[in-house]
Amino acid sequence: MAHTAVAHGDNYLNHSHGMMSWLKTLDHKRIGLMYLFTVLGYFLIGGLFALLIRLELMFPGQTLIDPNTYNKVFTYHGAIMVFMVIIPAIPAALGNFVLPMMLGAKDVAFPRLNLASYYIYVFGALFATSALFFGGADTGWTFYTPYSIRTSGAVISVIFGAFIMGFSSILTGLNFIVTIHKLRAPGLSWARLPLFIWASYATSIIQILATPVLAITLLLLIFERVFQVGIFDPKIGGDPVLFQHFFWFYSHPAVYIMILPPMGVISEVIPVFSRKPIFGYKAIAYSSFGIALIAFVVWGHHLFVSGQGELANFVFSLLTMLVAVPTGVKVFSWVGTMYKGSIRLNAPMLYALGFLQLFTIGGLTGVFLATLAIDVHLTDTYFVIAHFHYVMVGGALMGLLAGMHYWFPKMTGKMYLEKGARISFWWILAGFNITFFPQFIVGAQGMPRRYHDYLPEFSTLNLLSTVGSWFLAIGFFWAAINLWRSLKLGEKAGDNPWNALTLEWQSPSPPPHENFLVEPVVTTWPYEYKAEAGLTPVRPW
Amino acid sequence: MSFGVRQFRVEMKMKTMSNKSRSGLMSAAMMAILLSAGAAFANTPGLPIRATEVATQWDALYNFLVGLSVFFFILVVGAMLYFVKEYRAKPGVKTKYIADHHLLEGLWTFIPFVLLMVIFVWGYAVYDKMISAPSNAMEIRVIGKQWLWQFQYDDGRSTINEVYVPVNQPVKLVMTSTDVLHSFFIPNFRVKQDVVPGMYSSVWFEATVPGKHQVFCTEYCGAAHSQMLAQVIALDSEDWENWKRGKKILAEGIRKAGEAAAVQSDKTVASAAAAIPATHPQLTLVEQGKAQFQAKGCIACHTPDGSSRGGMGPTLKGVFGSHSEMINGAKVVADENYIRESIENPTAKIKKGFNPVMPTFKGQVSATEMNALIAYIKSLK
Question: What is the number of domains present in chain A?
């Protein structure tokens, strides 16, 4: 292995010192960590807003905050979680750290552009956050017209912030595509690419093709608000449904920007902790592209009751059904990978299995919503809220946590504290299900989303959901504190604690400034797990 | 509405079956079939009551999906848990090198595909019923505004946040908004339709259960979004006659109906009587439209009787529902949206043989007046 020469102790963390060495770094690993901390910071803010939403909904009537404040709170929760947390979380944070190393590269193709992407993201995020101090925005993260044109407040700040962050997303996608094409190590043919790379590639394509449409849409919205150009508001000659088409033309593919990268993480974690080749490598790789492709032609399923017309509904429902096929292929392949394996339940694997449980529910309930007649009753109710939280939180955040624990030893050179990681996992899994499963039921019963108040019939399930949110919060805090403590108390990790075959593990932990001490040469695919070679299995406690 | 947690219990029961492993899978599949069949004769646990034929069909499909989901959930998560237990790492145990299996992969691509297509077709079939209003449907106009629902009836009356309909008779709501997006959602009927400013959309239902049926606004519309509630009050034939005559004995009727359907609490039923306009307005909706037609000066250029006004404007006799050709060659069906556009933005579509001379009436015709005008034009057969 490549790390025999590790002795001189130079790594990316101690390669240079001081605040400025971080702020001006071109090292993809440092940029990845800066993304990670920013994302986690926003996750804390978005999460606090979520707790506030649940507290208000704990009882019917006004519990804590008035309707106007409530409307702002759910707007921030949604906008922060979507634009500032989940979209950049895995591609930009983990992706930046891991992707070049997995390719055996010294860095991404355009390191300066990479740093610029980070600052564009931060600038956009701050711009959007500034709305908090200038009257706020109460449009919901979807900015539906004509409400978003007519309501008062700092709507433009939020919209323009999202517009700016879009550029960051586009540039990161571009950077990754070029990196994957040009900077693969000798011997790393396309057929040997790790599935995380395939997932990142598919994600990047969506980022560069779909995000510009959002940018244009948001710009049109700003024009309409500022200059009263009639585009979306019927009062001045616009068409409000047109906005929904534009918005979802981006925002539906964006859902796959959020879910494909965690799928990539899961595809890495499950074989490593099962000591088996990934089952159906090609099927998983192709299915990422299948999903990315279909992602562009299903936006209309958000508009089944908008009045877009029966033919459009017919086509969009049919196309949406197709998404479930490649998605199912992935899920079955992951489970298939575990068959006759040698399974170790370390925290990354636990989170991956948690992902499977939650994502399966998220996916299956997606079929409900793709079914035309069923969607008519369920759309804009809590059923939809539950569905996309199962996908976005249950899927994307579980994937992020799996990845953070999996690569923690590589990033820091230390092992995370296993016991705490497992405890936090159980809190999160239980808390998540208690919070969101009742929302399927209350939604099917008819409770609409974005309600500050609800009928007494919905009380019990809402109370349950609120209590669940506390479990979930405890779990997240526990995981964060545990990782923080691991930085100090964690054992020395060694270069390849999981005995994994992808290239990032064939380098010292933490990796040196230019990733590898000797240029890696690839001779096999990354899932050549043949046996439990001399590893002591982790004891289940 | 029968809100409750019974649906939850059903699903929990199904989940516990997973412990019995393989037989559990079979039972879940059986359960799916049973639930779909059961949908034919009773309210579904955990769902609002079923108060239309469409709702019955909806529940059957929904229950099928629940059953199928439980089956696949047990399949995936059951297999996952079983593998974790069975193949937990043990010292010295080697794993089997399996990288793919084409038959298996083909099957788990093909079988879900077929199932999804069945679900799609089934979903479309129910949807088609949901949106195809029978031609004899009684029309009621709905205006959504921040934050109330207004209803206009043929007889000229109008109500706020309560809409009175007969049972066992199709009713079509023709809806628009005067400000932002709203959405009209009746859980007991399983129907919902966005209400969009600047355009008419419609939703129809045929209530089979007398009583009060909750209406929610389901498109976020601002501060009092969650207070934008209404009730569909479905009346049996006797009560419907009373309502038509404006009689007050309704309250008793609704109470009876309410008890029969086990909907809503007593206090909401009791408040219903007060809101009913006891006296008829002098004019029906068509008559109101006719008055507007005179007052707004429409009659100067458009005749209601088929005669010509020297080519100034087309006659409006028989125009509603007709197909006509525009000067740019486009074919247009004269529906509510077309009539409204022709009043508010007359130059958008010019009928062949006429000139773009009509001034705009945008901002001069209120939503209620517009509904009356359309009702009047519709009556000119």
Answer: 1
Question: Any idea what the Cα angle at residue A463 is, between residues A459 and A466, rounded to 5°?
Answer: 140
Contact A335/B90, CB-based, under 8 Å? no
Residue A15 domain flag? no
Strand partners for B159: B151
Give the pLDDT score at B260: 42
Q: Is A515 inside a domain boundary?
A: no
Residue A454 has its nearest CB partner, among B73, B223, B226, at B226
What ipTM was reported for this prediction? 0.93
The pTM assigned to this predicted structure is: 0.89
Average pLDDT over residues A193-221: 94
Residues A71, B221: C-beta atoms closer than 8 Å: no
CB-count exposure of residue B329 (10 Å: 0-12, 13-18, 19+): exposed
pLDDT per residue over A128-169, tens digit each? 999 888 888 999 999 999 999 989 888 999 999 999 999 999
**Homologous superfamily in CATH for domain B285-379:** Cytochrome c-like domain (1.10.760.10)
CATH of B138-275, one of 1.10.150.390, 3.40.50.720, 3.30.9.10, 2.60.40.420: 2.60.40.420
Q: What is the 8-class DSSP label of residue A516?
A: -
Q: How would you write A105-145 as a 3-class SS string?
A: CCCCCCHHHHHHHHHHHHHHHHHHHHHHHCCCCCCCCCCCC
Residues of A in contact with B92 (CB under 8 A): 532
| Distance (Å) from the alpha carbon of A377 to chain B's nearest alpha carbon | 5
The Cα–Cα gap between A255 and A253 comes to 5
Q: Domain holding A117: CATH number?
A: 1.20.210.10
Q: Which of B3, B89, B122 sits opposite A458 (nearest CB)?
A: B3
Across the A/B interface, how many CB contacts are shorter than 8 Å? 286
Residues listed for chain B? 381
Nearest to A343 among B83, B226, B227 (CB): B83
**Closest Cα in chain B to A437:** B8
Average pLDDT over residues B73-85: 97
Determine the distance in angstroms separating the CA of A97 from the nearest CA of chain B, rounded to an integer.
Answer: 28
What's the Cα-to-Cα distance from B327 to each of A292, B309, B333, rounded to whole Å? 44, 19, 14
Contact A537 B91 (CB under 8 A): yes
